[in-house]
């Protein structure tokens, strides 16, 4: 087996083996969870692997070409390990996964069998199933520019380069009134015009939903109240007093980039692309034809 530790290979060829499997899941928020199917905990690479997690995995399908290596992990939902509410909140989406074959009698003898990310996760009956995707999965992603009039960048990313944390483009405050995690109401948001936060983000800063965010659908005034409505509810408990941050929105238009953000040099759209009327325009036999615009 290519890449396997020689000591572990010799152990496997010896006939009587003491091997088990170990998994480590590292979420994007930095939380690390580690499990083993051995009946006692293991420790290596500075990580403690729990033995009572009830996690198992199917055989790993690996290839030597560019097709995606894949497997599936199955385990029990538990407040101490993988919780149902955290799956619902998307905290395991895209998490990094490593899987080893380990000699539990001598953990220095181990083989990293699989490395990839978590894909689709399903839960039912107190258990979960997680699709594990190999490193070659990223080769399936479409790369390249899209030629269109609106900007293709995300506000604040490395293409946009705008610092969304500048004064006047965000506000941090406590939740006053909330409706099912989707609508948030305040008496006022001084200094911010109506619709200023449309297409922006609402980020949760503390509480059990800390780290979650929602995209803003509407920002409007209703009487003397300011109403922020999200496209989808925050999948966590956001109650009165929870600290949130509102980030300015961008509609991807050149005028907005120039006037609202003063960031026209980094505009990633093509506002001068001809429209559909130009594409279907044809020469006319009547009237002057000086070679100018047909529109």
TrEMBL record:
Protein name: Putative phage protein (TIGR02218 family)
Coiled-coil segments on the chain, per record: none
Domain of life the protein comes from: Bacteria
NCBIfam families, sorted: phg_TIGR02218 (TIGR02218)
Record-linked InterPro entries: Phage_phiJL001_Gp84, Phage_phiJL001_Gp84_C
Domain (Bacteriophage phiJL001 Gp84 C-terminal) ranges: 196-277
Pfam families associated with the record: Phage_BR0599, Phage_phiJL001_Gp84_N
């Amino acid at each position: 087996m290519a890449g396997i530790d020689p000591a572990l290979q010799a152990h496997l060829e010896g006939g009587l083996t003491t091997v088990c499997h170990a998994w480590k899941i590292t979420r994007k928020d930095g939380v690390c969870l580690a499990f083993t199917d051995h009946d006692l905990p293991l420790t290596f690479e500075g990580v403690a692997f729990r033995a009572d997690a009830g996690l198992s995995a199917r055989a790993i399908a690996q290839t030597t070409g560019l097709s995606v290596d894949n497997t599936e992990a199955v385990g029990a939902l538990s407040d101490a390990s993988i919780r149902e509410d955290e799956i619902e909140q998307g905290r395991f989406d895209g998490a990094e996964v490593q899987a080893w074959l380990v000699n539990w009698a001598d953990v220095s003898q181990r083989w990293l069998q699989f490395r990839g990310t978590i894909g689709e996760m399903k839960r039912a009956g107190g258990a979960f199933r997680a699709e594990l995707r190999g490193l070659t999965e990223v080769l399936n992603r479409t790369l390249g520019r899209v030629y269109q009039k609106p900007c293709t960048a995300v506000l604040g990313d490395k293409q946009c380069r705008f610092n969304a944390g500048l004064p006047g483009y965000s506000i941090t405050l406590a939740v006053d009134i909330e409706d099912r995690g989707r609508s948030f109401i305040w008496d006022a948001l001084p200094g911010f015009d109506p619709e200023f936060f449309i297409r922006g983000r609402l980020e949760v800063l503390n509480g059990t939903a800390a780290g979650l965010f929602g995209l803003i659908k509407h920002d409007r005034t209703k009487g003397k109240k300011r109403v922020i409505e999200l496209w989808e509810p925050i999948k966590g408990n956001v109650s009165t007093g929870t600290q949130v941050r509102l980030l300015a929105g961008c509609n991807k238009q050149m005028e907005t980039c120039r006037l609202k953000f003063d960031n026209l040099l980094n505009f990633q759209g093509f506002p001068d692309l001809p429209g559909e009327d130009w594409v279907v325009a044809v020469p006319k036999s009547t009237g002057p034809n000086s070679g100018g615009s047909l529109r």
